[in-house]
Structure formats: structure tokens, C-alpha cells
From TrEMBL, chains A, B:
<dbReference type="InterPro" id="IPR016163">
    <property type="entry name" value="Ald_DH_C"/>
</dbReference>
<dbReference type="Pfam" id="PF00171">
    <property type="entry name" value="Aldedh"/>
</dbReference>
<keyword id="KW-0560">Oxidoreductase</keyword>
<dbReference type="GO" id="GO:0003842">
    <property type="term" value="F:L-glutamate gamma-semialdehyde dehydrogenase activity"/>
</dbReference>
<dbReference type="InterPro" id="IPR011975">
    <property type="entry name" value="PaaN_2"/>
</dbReference>
<feature type="domain" description="Aldehyde dehydrogenase">
    <location>
        <begin position="92"/>
        <end position="535"/>
    </location>
</feature>
<dbReference type="GO" id="GO:0009898">
    <property type="term" value="C:cytoplasmic side of plasma membrane"/>
</dbReference>
<dbReference type="InterPro" id="IPR016162">
    <property type="entry name" value="Ald_DH_N"/>
</dbReference>
<dbReference type="GO" id="GO:0010133">
    <property type="term" value="P:L-proline catabolic process to L-glutamate"/>
</dbReference>
<keyword id="KW-0520">NAD</keyword>
<dbReference type="InterPro" id="IPR050485">
    <property type="entry name" value="Proline_metab_enzyme"/>
</dbReference>
<protein>
    <submittedName>
        <fullName>Phenylacetic acid degradation protein PaaN</fullName>
    </submittedName>
</protein>
<dbReference type="InterPro" id="IPR016161">
    <property type="entry name" value="Ald_DH/histidinol_DH"/>
</dbReference>
<dbReference type="InterPro" id="IPR015590">
    <property type="entry name" value="Aldehyde_DH_dom"/>
</dbReference>
Length: 563, 563
């Protein structure tokens, strides 16, 4: 088959972007090729706002036929957290047919080499980028994110993370040269000479198990890391968030085919309600790599049972912010208020426990008691979300009934410093929109500890009174060690406290944001610069992205012979 | 404490070597800083042959006091495969005291940074190199290797593998810069600016579980990879091969102390006979990394049970050489004869199954029948080992009674093409020295398959008659997939067969040597150039050395704040 996209074209078009990505992960300075502003789209083949919305609307109620082999049925049933039924159906796969078909194209994909795989991945990302407006609606109506967040986190930021994974995968594969001449001196005798050829080979079929809240952002790193290292990739989306990953698979299959490769190198495994296909897939012998984002229970199950595979998990943690002192009290409050509110706290990186000395904190405006700090924070959140339109734009919708139930139960755990408020969404009357609750707890009380030492995913934060900064650091250590943490924040003007918090994070292996008062928030990480998770505490066994995230997705086979 | 070895001195002395190692792993051309010739030693502080022997003799019957905390007893009992009792005793550790003591120095070691750790490791290797003659006797009298092999494989080649691990560890840690400035444009508003600090942090205490046959060669990669990435390292040697690793620990502790670090960052865990301390240590919560070389059964146990640790295993495989055709029949026979004889086949890389078409092979001297090939190979081995002195120098001694028992049992498995012969060692009358046995088996017979499809570690090879080259390739694939392989060899002048063997090795992930007829053997790999194992088949889950071998021994913690 004559490829419509030649290696020459793809390399000419994408190699400069790959080189910039390689430079960015080396310097970790700011960089992104994917515009964050909705108005940046609409030229050079990309869909503008209206076209993206129209494309999304055209998908509703239809069948997304990916042309996959072994399709034995059509399944669907997504209902947007904003209330609309998507009505899209997807291929349901007979895995005994699909998995062998996915392996058929692996040899050609392997033989294409690391650079060709990288630029094919970049072409996939480019086409996804062009459809960012369409993806934004797909992410919004599966995750419940507000439009702007679905656009940015589900679009350019997710694409950045995918590109970052491609860059890491590429550089890892080319660390060993394709060929080597090895000539060993033998004193007066002739040297011994060998020629050696090194080939990166894939592990097999990789499985990506998607999540409900960030289907693209959390799905792309594993998907692209595995594909770029030569593996076929089977995408098993969360049953409530199929569409964004199904579109991704569709684009990948198109590009692979146009570049002369077997489209079955990327496939979708949608499931019937309650089918629980992830366990079956995860233990199939063909599956050699698994990327998973979701609950700790299933992540632990995968690590224990999918022994034939390399398993990369992002599970749950309990994120802490230490509030000890600040020289920008208002900045701190508004920064924290935003962090607690964004996407109704439904991020694995949202702070849960705010540790505040019961004797109060120092600020540039003088001391503030524990009660004052909590009341001021509550006021700050209240102010941020006081306007319903802005609140809707920040909070998005509650993603599922479990989150709503946890939110409602949280008010019974202690004294409520800020009650959750119901907000109407004029565009989507069925959307469940709630402001965060802040509950006061005492770090010294066992019952309270039982509450705040477990992840309470959703718009729930605990203002935990602690005896001292030292007590807070000790509690932080215990929390990371026992429960894991995706993020840690701290506010302090004390060198001693800063040093103690840093040392706790270095020893317990958690990513720390210090004294954020401006437009960067503890729950946000930027691709090419910030690591997402550390891979060294119970919240996640891998970080996005580093060498460890890609290095074991392929192996290098050497063939040597006498020169 | 004022360090006797300053960072400045160590970097000045060792940075050039590190840079050369970094270049070598990038080009994979021949390089080694460690001389292979015994006469190269004796100047610049290194021990010459006589001094090395004297140093070894001085150890015998003595107590090797490493100054470790928590030493509750002294244990020993090594008996050389050459018959002499070493009589050395080693500290037996109370691990509840030793493990916490090992963690005490980790913060300073972490804060020293990747370059300082690398040059401290290089200083350790330098001092080991200076004592290569002493180590050679220690390796010889624990592994049973002949002196020259113990000298080279246990000395410079092991040191090369250790240095290679340091180089990989270093480069992996400096991929992320120490600091970054991140400035994100905000249109007309001021940009957002963050400063970020990235610190490689260790996982915890690493455990190295040594083996009997190559205590240093197989032990050094894990030891140095873990130490160079900031971890403390506990070395649990094989009870029959303690001395080489105990000396290694001694040198490491000396250098660490002189450089101002806690010597307890490296410690020895010797055990009483039958104590089985490896299982206890491997599941301690402090142990976060394990490197293991040995039986498949215990390697599998570690992978299944030491779930709190990153586990790197080199287990057993069944190595195959395909003999289909050659244009250098004599070269092939002598190359194979050497491979089968070296260290009595007691290498994880020694070929076991020689697959030969029952219709014979093509050679530059005309066709040879299966029987002729096997007879010629037997004659070639016989000739190589015909002289007892040369035989002793190649074979070494049988390492333990199990190997001897397997050798004796092998003769009953089929028609013996070459019988094993007992050889006297004039220097060590109690040494058990045996030439290899070659047994003819039929690849089509189930009973024969049962014999050759299991690892028969020791001087046992099977000449397996197969129906065709295609049959041989199919059998090769099955063997790698089911049993694993550290090495694969093939002799063929047919492009088609070469292609089929290569494809089998690429798909099943095994390292291939083609048509070796000169002074390089399928069972030898050179550091900085050849990978040892692939990490992609059941024989080993890691390769020596690549990025995957080091990337997950540390994590990177980021601390970010507003600029």
C-alpha cells in the first residue's frame, strides 16, 4: 500500500517540534506548541469554536464506527454530568479477535524506527489539536469539567502531556545507537572486531485504562509512551468517559493507515454497563504494559495481579497544604480558594487537608487565629464563587453521584466553616453544581484523624488544627507515607519551617509548591516542566513524565557478528 | 568531620573516566579503563601478582571486621571448590540495628548530588581495581573459576560493569536540571514566573543478593546503580561466595568514610548456614530495591513477594545455538568448543541446546551429516581439553555437588557423543574438575524434549536433531518464550535462515550472536557495548545495563515557588 503520508513529509513537518520538546524536557523552561486560547483555533485546518461545537453535536446519537476487527456489538450509554444523553455507540470487541489483529502490524511498526514512530505520534497529536474545540465538548460532557477547563486541560494540556511522553520515548530509544563497530586491541595480534546492531523492540500490546475525570490528560501519556516505543495500544475508557478517547483512537487509526501502518495498532475496548472488562484485559497474556488512573483499590489489584505486564498506576492520595505564616495573606487566601474550587475539587491534585496551627499564623497584617484563617478562607471561596456565572465556569458539574454523596456526608464530620451551596446552571438545568465545603477538624482527635486521613474525593476540604508547625510536618510525613500525595503545598515565611517541609517532601517523595499566591495553583502541573506525581509514594507508582515512565516499555535486542 | 577525600580531588581524578564511560555507552565502541592483563598491575599503588596472592593468603582464617553496627555474631564456613577452607568469618548482623543505621547517612548522600556520588563510586572501583589480584583469588576460591577467568571476569570485567552502572545512573539523574526558571507569557499582562528545584531522591535501602558463580560480575551492576542513585546498599552474598563481596563492602565503607560520608551506606549481611536470610531481608519495609542473580524459583518468589521493592532479577534460561550452515567449519567448531568448555559451562550464558538439522548442514568443505557435526564438535572439545594443564585453565572447578550430580545424570538422557572426563588438578588435589558432556537428543521425541527444554546448569550440552531450519527456528522461539534465554547463537550462510533467526530473537526478545568463529564467544558480553540479557524474556527482567536498569532506583522531587 502506498502511504499517503511519507516518512519524508512527516519528518519535515514534525521534527522541529520534536526537537523543541526534547529541549524543553532538558531545560524544563516554559514551552508548549498547543495554544491555550480558544480563539487561536480556526485557521490552517483547525476547527474554530462554532465548527468544533457543530462537530461534537454531529456525533451525538450516532455510531462511532472505528472499523475495528472483531466488533461483535455496539455499546454506549454515556450521560453527561450536565444532563444530556450523548447517545453515541462504540464498537464492542471480541478480544480473541481484536488482540491478535492488533499484533499483526507490530513488526512494521517496530521496523519503522524511533523517529518515524515519533513523527507519526506527532501527526496524531496535530490532528487532535486541530479538533480541540470538538474534544473540549467531549471532555466537558463526560468529565463534567466547565467548558474552559475542558478546553484547556482536555485539549492543549493533554496534548502537551502526550507530546512530552513521545519526547521521552524517543530520546530513550536513541540513547543506544542503531549500529556500533567494536574493535578490541589484542596487543601484537590483530584486533577483534565485531559489528553490532541494536533494535528497540516493543513489549507487546499496551492497555490504557482511562478515568472519568481527565480522560485525555491522564490517558495520553501512557498511550503515546507505549505507541512511540513500538507497542500496539488498546484503550479501555471509563464507561462514563468514552467519547474523548474513542475520538483519539479514531484519529490515531486514520493517521496510522495514511502513513502505511496497520490501523489496528490502536484500538478501543468499550464495554457494556457492568461488564468489568478491565480485569479480563489486564490479565491477558498479550497485554504487557498497563497504564491506569483511578481508585487505589483497583490500582493495587492491577499491581498485584497483572504480573505479566509493566503496570503504571496513578491512584488516590491525600493532599496536604501547610499554612504556617505568609507575607501575602490575601494572595494566599485567593490562591487557595481557587485551588479548592477548580472543577469542584475533583482533581487528584486538589488539596484536601489544610494544616493550620491552633495558635494561629503570622501574616504581614499581623497574627491571625486558626478560626480567623478558616473564616477568611471560607469568605475567600465564597467571594470567588459568589457570582453564579463565574461559579459555573470554575466549578463545572459534579461528575457522579458518589462525589455528591461524599460532599453531603462531609458536613457531618465536624463543624462546617463553609457550607456547600447549590448553584443553578442556566444552560444545563440537570447539571449538579455545588460549591466546596470546608469542615473544621482537630488533628489531635482520633475520630477527626479517621476522617481526614482518607481521601475524600470531591469538593471537600478539612481545616485541620494542629499543635505546631512541627506537628504539622510530622502529620504531613505520616500522610504521605501512609496515604500518598500527588501534591503538597506550604505557606511559610520561616526558613526553618520551609526547610522542615522540604525535607519531609524529599524523604517521603512528594512534589512541593511553596507560597503560591499568584496565578499558578498547587493542583496544576505544566508538561515539559513539572512532574505530575513522584512515583515514590503510595499515590502513584510513576511520574508524568520521566525516564522511568518510558524506559521499560521497550527492550533493546542486539545482533552481533564478526566484522 | 573533615573529609580526607574532597569533592574537588575526587572530581579532578575521576571525572575524565566518567566522561569516557558516558561516551562509551553512547557509541558502544570498545572501551575499558581496567586492564585485562595480570602483568598490568603492580604500579601506582596496585598490587602485583605476588602481593595480591599474599594479601589473599593473609585473609584466610581471619575475621573480616567491617566495623558494622549491630554485629551480633561472626559467621563463615566457605570451602573453595578447589578444596581449601577459607576460614574467614564475617559480621552477622542484627538487621533491626543495622537497617536503621544504614538510613542515617542517606540525607547527606542524597544532598551530595549525582556527580559526587558518581566519583565516590569511581574511587571505590579504583581501589578494587588496585586489588584485582587479591580479588582474583577470592573469586577463584569461591566460584571455582580458573585463575585467569577469576582474574578477568571477577576483576576488570566486573569493574567495567560496575562503572557502566555508575555512568547510566549519573546520566539518568542529570537529565533533569537542578534548577529551572519557568516563565509563561500572559498576553499583555505580566508573565507568570516560577523557580523550580529538582532533586533526585533515593528509594531507600537497596538489597543485593549475590550468586555463587560470579559474585562480583553479577553483583556490581546493582550495587553501584543503587549507590550512585543515592540509596544505601545492603549486600547479602551467597553463603559459598562471601569473600569477594565482603572485600567490596570493606572498600566501599573505607572510601565513603574518607569522603566524609557514613560508611554504613554500604553493609554486608552474611548469614549462618541454612539461615535463609534473603527472604526475611527482601520483604523488610526498608528494602525498596532488590538485585538478584540465581535460580528461577527464588527470582520468581522475589518478584511475587517483595512487592514493596523494585526487583531486578537474572534467573535461568535455556540458551540455544542454531547450527544450519557455515563457511568456516573449523572456526565454528573451535568457537563452540571453547564456549561449551569455559568455566565448565557454569555460566548463565553458556549454550545448552545445539539445534542441528537431522539431514546435516552445509559447510565450505561440503555437507556434513548430523552425526558428523556432533562427532566433529566432540573431537574439537576433546582437542581443546586434551592437555590437562590447559583444561584446568579453561574449566576451573565444579562449583558445587549439584552441578556434578547433573553432569553425571546427563549421560543417561541420551546417546553420549562426548563423555565427561575427570581431570586432576596438580595444585588442588581436592578440586572436582570435569570436561563437558555432549548428549544427542531428538527434537521430535517428547522424552527428549522434556530433557532439553529445562535448564541443565553445568557442563552439559545437548545436540538436538531437528527436522529443518524452520523447525529449529520454531523450537528456538518456543524455548525463549517458555524458558527464557540469556544468549542465542546461530551459524548460517543462508540469508533466509539468518532473517528468520533474527526475527525470532527480535520478537521473543533475546540477544543474538551470529556466526562467531574467532575470539569472541556467545557466552561473553562486554560492558559499555553488549547488553547482558534483554529484560524481555523469562530469563531476566532486566538487562545490564540500560536506562530501565537505573531509572526507577531514584525519583525526582520538585520544589517550586514564585520567582
Amino acid at each position: 500500500m502506498a502511504a499517503e503520508l511519507t516518512a519524508h513529509q512527516l519528518i519535515a513537518q514534525h521534527r522541529p517540534t520534536l526537537d523543541q520538546a526534547l529541549e524543553a524536557i532538558r531545560t524544563r523552561a516554559y514551552w508548549s506548541p498547543h495554544p491555550e486560547h480558544p480563539k487561536a483555533y480556526g485557521e490552517n485546518g483547525s476547527l474554530d469554536m462554532a465548527a468544533g461545537k457543530a462537530a461534537f453535536d454531529a456525533l451525538l446519537g450516532g455510531r462511532l464506527d472505528l472499523g475495528q476487527p472483531g466488533t461483535d456489538d455496539w455499546v454506549g450509554g454515556e450521560v453527561s454530568p450536565y444532563g444530556i444523553e450523548l447517545g453515541v455507540t462504540y464498537p464492542h470487541a471480541d478480544v480473541d479477535t481484536l488482540l491478535p489483529a492488533m499484533r499483526a502490524g507490530q513488526r512494521a511498526w517496530r521496523d519503522a524506527g524511533a523517529e518515524m514512530r515519533a513523527v507519526v505520534c506527532l501527526e496524531i497529536l496535530k490532528r487532535i489539536s486541530d479538533r480541540t474545540h470538538e474534544f473540549a465538548h467531549a471532555v466537558m460532557h463526560t468529565s463534567g469539567q466547565a467548558f474552559m477547563m475542558a478546553f484547556q486541560a482536555g485539549g492543549p494540556h493533554a496534548q502537551d502531556r502526550g507530546l512530552e511522553a513521545v519526547a521521552y520515548a524517543y530520546v530513550e530509544q536513541v540513547r543506544t545507537p542503531d549500529d556500533a563497530e567494536w574493535t578490541k586491541p589484542q596487543g601484537k595480534r590483530d584486533p577483534i572486531a565485531l559489528t553490532k546492531r541494536f533494535t528497540p523492540v516493543p513489549r507487546g500490546v499496551a492497555l490504557v485504562i482511562g478515568c472519568n475525570t481527565f480522560p485525555t490528560w491522564n490517558g495520553y501519556p501512557g498511550l503515546f509512551a507505549s505507541l512511540a516505543t513500538g507497542n500496539a495500544v488498546l484503550v479501555k475508557p471509563h464507561p462514563r468517559a468514552v467519547l474523548p478517547l474513542a475520538l483519539t483512537v479514531q484519529v490515531a487509526r486514520e493517521v496510522l493507515a495514511e502513513a502505511g501502518f496497520d490501523p489496528n495498532l490502536v484500538a478501543l475496548a468499550a464495554e457494556r454497563a457492568g461488564e468489568g472488562i478491565a480485569k479480563t484485559l489486564a490479565t491477558r497474556p498479550e497485554i504487557r504494559i498497563i497504564d491506569y488512573t483511578g481508585s487505589t483499590a483497583f490500582g493495587d489489584w492491577l499491581e498485584a495481579n497483572a504480573r505479566q505486564a509493566q503496570v503504571y498506576t496513578e491512584k488516590a492520595g491525600v493532599n496536604t497544604v501547610l499554612v504556617e505564616s505568609t507575607d501575602n495573606y490575601k494572595g494566599m487566601l485567593s490562591n487557595l480558594a481557587f485551588s479548592l474550587s477548580l472543577y469542584s475539587g475533583q482533581m487528584c491534585t486538589t488539596p484536601q487537608n489544610l494544616l493550620i496551627p491552633r495558635d494561629g499564623i503570622r501574616t504581614e497584617e499581623g497574627p491571625r487565629t486558626y478560626d480567623e484563617v478558616v473564616a477568611d478562607l471560607a469568605r475567600s471561596v465564597g467571594g470567588l464563587l459568589g457570582d453564579d456565572a463565574r461559579a459555573n465556569g470554575l466549578l463545572g458539574a459534579i461528575v457522579n453521584p458518589d462525589v455528591k454523596a461524599r460532599l453531603e456526608a462531609a458536613a457531618g464530620l465536624g463543624e462546617v466553616a463553609l457550607a456547600s451551596r447549590e448553584i443553578a446552571n442556566p444552560d444545563f438545568p440537570d447539571a449538579v453544581v455545588r460549591t466546596p465545603v470546608i469542615v473544621k477538624l482537630d488533628g489531635a482527635k482520633p475520630d477527626d484523624q479517621a476522617a481526614f486521613m482518607n481521601e475524600c474525593f470531591g469538593p471537600v476540604s478539612f481545616a485541620v488544627a494542629v499543635d505546631s508547625a512541627a506537628d504539622a510536618v510530622a502529620l504531613l510525613r505520616r500522610t504521605i507515607a501512609n496515604k500518598g500525595a500527588m501534591t503538597v503545598g506550604a505557606y511559610t515565611t520561616s526558613e526553618e519551617v520551609e526547610e522542615a517541609v522540604q525535607e519531609a517532601c524529599l524523604e517521603e517523595c512528594a512534589q512541593l509548591s511553596l507560597n503560591l499566591t499568584g496565578g499558578v495553583y498547587v493542583n496544576q502541573t505544566a508538561a515539559f516542566s513539572d512532574f505530575h506525581g513522584s512515583g515514590g509514594n503510595p499515590a502513584a507508582n510513576a511520574a508524568l513524565c520521566d525516564g522511568a515512565f518510558v524506559a521499560n516499555r521497550f527492550r533493546v535486542v542486539e545482533v552481533r557478528r564478526e566484522a
